[in-house]
Design a protein that fits this description.
It is built from 3 helices and no strands. By secondary structure, it is mainly alpha-helical. 72% of the residues lie in helices and 0% in strands. Helix 1 runs antiparallel to helix 3.
Length: 50
Amino acid sequence: MCFSAISSFSAGMALTPVGIACIKKTRHSSQHLFACIPFIFGVHSFKDLL
């Protein structure tokens, strides 16, 4: 639960591309879970809008 819809949308818009970039930059499969954290938070922020 976030403070407002605008902040949830902004967080989702900022974190989702960062998460995708982190996933693309990983070289070892052991780093994928750690690299997915920003993407997961970004998707979660969009989910709060529903």
